């Protein structure tokens, strides 16, 4: 089985495809990484060298995969940071063509736009995710701020996250996960998941550290676990615990990155787990 991962990449550190590849491989998948951006490092660490791919480059590489007749073994397309809005239609093309070859292939959309009240993409990318990608996705995984951008609802707590989930459900996604939601206990964060007619939350302590790549890691872990098990609740619980373990390790080692190589076993079998609570 293979997963086509269309998102950013860094040479050093772990965000985008650099965060997704190793855990998905450890879960037993081939990972076809199609980079929308290639940078020396995450921009928050220092100004990076690198470049943004254009749609022609992305389509050329995807068409090369298609011409090999390999898309039948692709079980999911994982879409993340686009770099620019022009790359959006290339990602949509990849999803449609993959589904033509494998009708059961999932489109997992991580609408990377910003975090902690700060948007770091242009408005055209926001419009693409709102008006095109979300409606095409089987699974959508925004953080609380991105859920606000997608729905127009200010997601500041669990109650407003529930409203945003309903808004996104109305657009057709079967599974919605919202991360980084403020819990009633402000020392903790909630991750909410909606599937069928159910909504559950998983509460974890906050880890006070820069979390670059944590969302990318969670989307990869959830995708791999869900394809293997078909159980969304077990999959999100494992993903949340895996990300928590990676963050705790980064804080302990005082690392600016998630250092996934050193925790590659731990994120798949985390020592601390968190019991989901049903909200609806």
Q: What do these coordinates show?
A:
- The protein is of the alpha/beta class and 280 residues long.
- It is built from eight helices and twelve strands.
- The chain has helices spanning 17-26, 55-67, 88-101, 123-136, 144-151, 158-169, 214-229, 232-252, and strands at 2-10, 30-39, 50-52, 74-79, 106-109, 114-115, 118-119, 139-140, 175-182, 188-195, 198-205, 277-278.
- α5 crosses α6.
- The chain is globular and about 50 Å long.
- The model has no long low-confidence stretch (mean pLDDT 96).
Structure, briefly:
The protein has 280 residues and is α/β, with parallel strands linked by helices. The protein is 39% helix and 23% strand. The protein has helices spanning 17-26, 55-67, 88-101, 123-136, 144-151, 158-169, 214-229, 232-252; strands spanning 2-10, 30-39, 50-52, 74-79, 106-109, 114-115, 118-119, 139-140, 175-182, 188-195, 198-205, 277-278.
SSE arrangement:
Layout: E1 2-10, H1 17-26, E2 30-39, E3 50-52, H2 55-67, E4 74-79, H3 88-101, E5 106-109, E6 114-115, E7 118-119, H4 123-136, E8 139-140, H5 144-151, H6 158-169, E9 175-182, E10 188-195, E11 198-205, H7 214-229, H8 232-252, E12 277-278
Parallel strand pairs: 1-2, 1-4, 4-5, 5-8, 8-9
Antiparallel strand pairs: 2-3, 6-7, 9-10, 10-11, 11-12
């Amino acid at each position: 089985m293979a997963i086509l991962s269309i998102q950013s990449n860094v040479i050093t550190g772990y965000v985008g495809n650099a965060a997704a590849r190793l855990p998905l491989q450890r879960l037993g998948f081939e990972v076809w990484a199609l980079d929308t951006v290639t940078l020396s490092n995450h921009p928050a660490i220092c100004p990076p060298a690198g470049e943004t791919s254009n749609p022609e480059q992305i389509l050329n590489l995807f068409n090369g995969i298609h011409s090999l007749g390999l898309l039948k073994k692709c079980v999911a397309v994982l879409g993340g940071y686009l770099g620019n809005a022009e790359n959006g239609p290339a990602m949509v093309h990849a999803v449609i063509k993959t589904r033509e070859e494998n009708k059961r292939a999932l489109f997992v959309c991580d609408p990377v736009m910003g975090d902690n009240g700060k948007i770091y993409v242009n408005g055209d990318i926001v419009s693409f995710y709102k008006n095109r990608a979300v409606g095409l996705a089987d699974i959508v995984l925004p953080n609380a701020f991105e859920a606000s951008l997608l729905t127009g609802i200010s997601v500041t707590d669990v109650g407003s996250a529930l409203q945003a989930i309903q808004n996104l459900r109305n657009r057709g996604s079967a599974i919605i996960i919202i991360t980084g939601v403020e819990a009633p206990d402000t020392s903790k964060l909630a991750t909410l998941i909606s599937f069928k007619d159910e909504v559950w939350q998983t509460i974890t302590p906050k880890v006070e550290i820069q979390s670059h790549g944590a969302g990318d890691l969670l989307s990869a872990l959830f995708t791999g676990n869900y394809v293997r098990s078909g159980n969304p609740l077990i999959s999100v619980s494992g993903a949340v615990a895996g990300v928590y373990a990676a963050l705790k390790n980064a804080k302990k080692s005082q690392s600016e990155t998630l250092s996934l190589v050193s925790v590659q076993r731990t994120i798949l079998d985390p020592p601390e787990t968190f019991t989901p609570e049903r909200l609806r």
